[in-house]
Amino acid sequence: MQRKLVRILFVLGIVLAIAIAGIKPVHSLPTLNLHLLIAANPLERVKVKRSSWSSFQPARIGLMLRGNDRLLLPQNASATILCHNLQRRNPARGRDSSVSEVCGTISTTYDTEDILDPRARNDPKTPYLLYPRDTAIADSEPILRWNPVEGVQSYTVKVSGPGVKWEVESDRAEITYTGEPFQPGLRYWTVVTTDSGVSSTVEPRVFAGFTPLEETKVESLEAEAAKMQRQQLDTEAIALELAHLYWGSGLKGDAIRVLEEAIAEGSELVAVYRLLGRIYREVSLNRLAIAHWETGVELAEAVEDWDSLGDMQRGLAIAHRSLEQEDEARRWLEGARNAYLALGDEESLRQLEELAEKYF
Fold this sequence. Notes:
Elements: H1 2-22, E1 35-41, E2 47-49, E3 57-58, E4 64-65, E5 70-73, E6 78-82, E7 88-89, E8 95-98, H2 99-103, E9 129-131, E10 135-137, E11 143-146, E12 155-161, E13 164-170, E14 174-176, E15 188-194, E16 209-212, H3 215-229, H4 235-248, H5 252-264, H6 270-282, H7 286-303, H8 306-322, H9 326-343, H10 346-359
Parallel strand pairs: 10-16
Antiparallel strand pairs: 1-4, 1-6, 2-3, 2-5, 5-8, 6-7, 9-11, 11-14, 12-13, 12-15, 15-16
């Protein structure tokens, strides 16, 4: 009897194993480490307040929300939040409610980048990398891009890593990779050298690195991106959704591309410039971060968006300090202080003082 039972269990085990092997794997959905305000109607009637602010402020499309932030909607207004799980939720009307009530809670958020990194000067006389630069990639044949150096006629480009040793010459500051396939999850490196011997290796190797994503993750991201693009939303809001999706998945280069395309199409949304400058800072492209943040500051001043104004000026102070431009850094630091004072943001003022003591 016992032997018969063992045989039955053995057969059932084989059948179960065969059945499991035949099941198509379910792709896990991407998530965000934040919540994002993507719609408000009418915009001027919707208010938001962080715990450190002295009062409610006008809401802005693209505002990155923390769980304890509060949204205030009159009875005749509406808003939509892209939650961390990529679900879209609408806060209650006629009262204020916390974002965690609407979306649930998450453990982490993207906070302000205050890391000083003087290793990446982005010297215009060097072919420093633009893409892929300290990012994940979804494309099997990425277009490699670097800073075009004045007077250079040709560049030597090398890509190396597990199973890859590719070298070509280019007379332009970009070229499509056509070498051996990359292995997902592993690190690869790009080196560009001018015809006069100036190399991109003057910057730390970390900036030259990139990591291909696994195919299943790429597929789930593409599916979610297609879903976002089908929404009945303003094109700038969709661009911000896509940028946050890619950024949160490590595809910093793709997030930059989406935001740059939005600007090329005429976007003047403060959140677009704020996020783009931030991602450029994350990959240590300080000069590009500065250019976009300076435009963002002008747009934020015009609408008295004190939160974005303080955040971008704080970033500008760090970016200029990284380039050893101390006078400019101090000027932007003072601008951030004034913005936080206008907002009544005691927490950000305290952080700013700590930043000044550490770096200035």
